[in-house]
Amino acid sequence: MTASIDPIILNFIYTILGGLLTLFFMWLGCKIFNHMVCFNISEELHKGNTAVGMMLMGIFIGIGVALGLVIGLGLN
Length: 76
Known about the structure:
This protein is mainly α. It is built from three helices and no strands. It has helices at 7-36, 41-47, 50-74. Helix 1 (7-36) runs antiparallel to helix 3. The model has no long low-confidence stretch (mean pLDDT 81).
């Protein structure tokens, strides 16, 4: 099936699906982590707590790098 699809279009499909998958796992990771800690992440961000913002940034970067590697290595 994939042999009949142009490789450029197939790469765009992989990129779109990979982006959606990354966004979903970032949302899921934030929700799970919000249940694990004893404070509400959105309230602390609203108060301007930079430590919580940096923690959330680390979560997003970690999930993004991990999924990027998985998706990138899966293209071989």
